[in-house]
Amino acid sequence: MKKVFSLLLAVVMLSLCALSVSAKVDVYKTEKRVFENGNTVLPYRLVLPENYDDAKSYPMLVFLHGAGERGNDNELQLFHCVQYLADTLPECIIVAPQCPANNQWVDTPWAKGAYSIDKVPESNELKAVVELLDTLQEEFNVDADRIYASGLSMGGFGAWDLMMRHNDYFAAGVLVCGGGDLSQAEALKDTPLFVFHGDADPTVPVSGSRDVVQAIRDAGGELVQYVEYAGQGHGIWNTAFAHPGMLQELVTYKLSTRYPPEVSEEESVEESVEEEASVSRPAASEAPAEQPETSPLGWIIALSVLGVIVLATVILLVLKKKKG
């Protein structure tokens, strides 16, 4: 009886702790929204900067929760890390979608760690996430050069999947105790990534992160930062997201560094014409070449010669007349 009472007390205490954590999450005050993409219904929360100004552009971070926060209550996905993200990145738009119960961000067994995107199609949920981000860019002033993916556990797989399939969409990513595709190492070698895993993780093997990070480094990647916590299990996300300076560094990365804006053929022709014109015409600061001036002495000599010729002509005419 005493053991049963102790067990019940422990359950009550854990419930109270959970409630206290939830009560501290100010982002529960945000509007509950739902995005629909075909047959996929995606509840989500949007955290806007407190003094959002439509005249300014803001970076945007999508946060993918773990398996324990699935459902349709549009609240559980805020349980881990979202408040910390909002406090640490007050000038960033944060999007926290909720994966439906019994579904996954990536349809692969977590215990296997790595997987192949060629064999695992993109889930309807992640397709909806990308469509949602596109829609939010139409509604709010988002800096398309600074959109970031992040996730933990099941969401860590989701963040890897977004970075691999949509590398030209996300400027950088935070991937916590998830797994990726080693074959994508070449495509990810120039992408800034922050990867975290515990080496004693019983849920997602540490190889899920360790192997793909090594593959990226072997491909020449120098922008992947990997932290492996010795003796730590699965629940490392609070420590990972609080890694000193990580979030502040994350939002400095720009997609245009990796994918410079494309120049249209018409713009290219116009630039070429302007360059040619600038070469053919003298610069405005250059004075036109001065024409040589005739000196006063030159004029005197010229007039003297002309006078001699006229005088000689007159004399010849007079002599000719006398002879005649």
The number of strands is 8
> Number of helical runs?
11
The outline comes out as elongated
The H-and-E topology, N to C, reads as HEEEHEHEHEHEHEHHHHH
Structural class assignment: alpha/beta
CATH fold topology of the domain at 37-259: Rossmann fold
The CATH H-level superfamily of the domain at 37-259 is Alpha/Beta hydrolase fold, catalytic domain
CATH architecture of the domain at 37-259: 3-Layer(aba) Sandwich
Helix content: 40-55%
Cα gyration radius (Å): 37 Å
| Uncertain stretches | 1-25, 279-295
> Approximately how much beta-strand content do the residues carry?
15-25%
- As laid out across the biggest beta sheet, the strand order is 1-2-4-3-5-6-7-8
Instruction: Summarize the biggest pleated sheet.
Output: 8 strands, mixed
How would you explain this protein's 3D organization?
- The protein is elongated and about 135 Å long.
- Helix 2 (82-88) links the parallel strand 3 (58-64) and strand 4.
- The chain is built from 11 helices and 8 strands.
- Strands 1-2-4-3-5-6-7-8 form an 8-stranded mixed sheet, sandwiched between helices.
- Mean pLDDT is 83; it is low at 1-25 and 279-295.
- Helix content is 40%, strand content 17%.
- It has helices at 2-23, 82-88, 124-139, 154-165, 185-188, 207-218, 237-241, 246-250, 255-258, 265-280, 296-323, and strands spanning 32-37, 40-47, 58-64, 93-97, 142-152, 172-176, 193-198, 224-229.
- With 324 residues, it is α/β, with parallel strands linked by helices.
- It has a domain at 37-259: Alpha/Beta hydrolase fold, catalytic domain (Rossmann fold, 3-Layer(aba) Sandwich), CATH 3.40.50.
